[in-house]
Structure formats: C-alpha cells, structure tokens
DNA sequence: CTCCAGGCCGTCC
DNA sequence: GGACGGCATGGA
C-alpha cells in the first residue's frame, strides 16, 4: 500500500483485500451514504470523508486537517487480510463462497460511543432505518462536518452532548422502546469519562482512553458482560460492539441472520444460539469475527435461509 | 390488513 | 434457567 497526500485529498494505491463499498455496506456501520457508483461519503469520529475507489486505488477527500493514520486505522488497512482469509479457509473450506464474494470487507475500528449507541438502536430494526435514526440524531445534536452530493453530514454527538439528551428527546427521534436504553448508555458513557477523570481531551483521544482503561484488560467474555450492564445491551449487541469497535476479532455476534445462515450451511436444521456460539468458537477460533462478517454479508445478500 | 425487522426485558414456571 | 409475550416504528 502506498499513501500520497495532496491538500485535502489522500490517495491510497496498491490496495489489496479491500473494497470501500463492501466494507461500508456489510452492516457493521450506519453513518454513511452512497453518493455515486463506487463513491461513498462516510463519517468516522468527527470527520467526514468522501471516498472513491477504482480497483486498487482509493481517493479520499477530507474536510478538515487531520491525522492520516486515524483513517488508516479506522479502515483497518494495516492488517494482512490475505493471511487471515488463507488461514480461515484452511480451518473451514465451507467459507470459500462467502470469502470469494465478500472477501474485500475489512472490519472497521469504530468509535466506541457511536458504535454502542448505533447497535442499541439496531435491535428489531432494518438497516436503512437504523441509518436514518443515526443521521437524525447526528443532525439534531452533532456538529456540521461538510456536504457531499447535496447532502449535509454531521458528527454523531460526543459523550458530553449525549449526556444532556433526555429519554423524551430520544423518543422524538422515533427510537421507540429503545429510548431508555439509549439514555442509560449515555449515562454509562459519561460515567466512564468521569471515572477516568478525562478532561480537555480531543474526541479520538477520549475514545482511546476508554478503550484502553475500561476494556483494555478484559478478554472478550469479560468485555461482553461489562457491556451487558447497560440496559438494552444483550449478547448480540455487546458482541457487535466488541467486534466493530473494541477490536475483539474473536467476537462472534449471533443474530437472526447469522443463525439462519449457519443452520443452512452447517446444521441443516434448527439449533440454539448457544450451540452455534460453541461451534463457531471451535471452528474459527480467534478469527471468528472475520468469518462472521463474511458469512453475514454473503448470506444476507443471497437471502440464505429465508 | 397482517407480519417482521442485525433483540432485549420482565415475568412466568 | 428456559420459554414467552410485549415493545415503538416503519416498510413489505
């Protein structure tokens, strides 16, 4: 991979095992819009990016001076996915079709607070509606970041701002029964900031400190239980946060889709979530998160097990 | 009109 | 500890 910086444009050359569209559309994040063929506007932390990819070349427009390494880390571009896929196929050749079709997905390293709130919203909702609510919350409480293709983009509200949002405010944003859950999450997020005595820090740094000092010493099971202290967070939401934000690549979230897909591919009949969890752990081990995402995206696209 | 959505909670046994 | 209904809202 080669990186060239020219004013507000960052160009990545010789990319491998990466597709921006696949990475954003696979269901791991909700704060983006497709604005043209192979062109996406996406928000990470308090940055807006507009990326256009042609084969192994990606050009990203930025909207304020920032650290390139932040974007590289967000997109997980410094990891050897060829090696991961090779190892996964060695463990289980049944992943072949999924990896062949969706093998250019990368697992993002997203901001903890936004990922947590987004996946609390995600329960019992379809992806387009999750995206709408995330955009609405950002528009109402976040900061304006820039415009792309006629649409305005806003940051997801930071923790300090979240702490001022009341249950009824969330209800007005059509979050329904999730409103008290979102409120409780914002209280917990704020308590982390207080507990760690984080003052006067930049947004990304606050995120780093929470990840390091609250979750850094925990294994994936401990982190999941810690997250479940938040109302409205169960096994599935917790594992999504583990995988897509806290970098536990062995987390294997089980939702209605992955359950049906696993039953279709491996079991040929209905099995419990616990059984699937155990099976995935044995089969994929520390690479479970990658396998889960290839399977989820592939299966959802194919309508497997519907 | 019905049924379901990247689930989880409270209550029941 | 396992099963089950309820839950807000929107789209098929």
UniProtKB/TrEMBL annotation:
Pfam families attached to this UniProt entry: HhH-GPD, OGG_N
Molecular functions per Gene Ontology: class I DNA-(apurinic or apyrimidinic site) endonuclease activity; damaged DNA binding; oxidized purine nucleobase lesion DNA N-glycosylase activity
Enzyme Commission code(s) on record: 4.2.99.18
Catalysed reactions, semicolon-separated: 2'-deoxyribonucleotide-(2'-deoxyribose 5'-phosphate)-2'-deoxyribonucleotide-DNA = a 3'-end 2'-deoxyribonucleotide-(2,3-dehydro-2,3-deoxyribose 5'-phosphate)-DNA + a 5'-end 5'-phospho-2'-deoxyribonucleoside-DNA + H(+)
Key words of the record: DNA damage, DNA repair, Glycosidase, Hydrolase, Lyase, Multifunctional enzyme
Source species, domain of life: Bacteria
Domain annotation HhH-GPD: ranges: 121-300
InterPro entries for the chain: DNA_glycosylase (IPR011257), HhH-GPD_domain (IPR003265), HhH_base_excis_C (IPR023170), OGG_N (IPR012904), Oxidative_DNA_repair_enzyme (IPR052054)
GO biological process, one term: base-excision repair
Family statement drawn from the similarity comment of this UniProt entry: Belongs to the type-1 OGG1 family.
Protein name: DNA-(apurinic or apyrimidinic site) lyase
Organism field: Eubacterium uniforme
Taxonomic placement: Bacteria, Bacillati, Bacillota, Clostridia, Eubacteriales
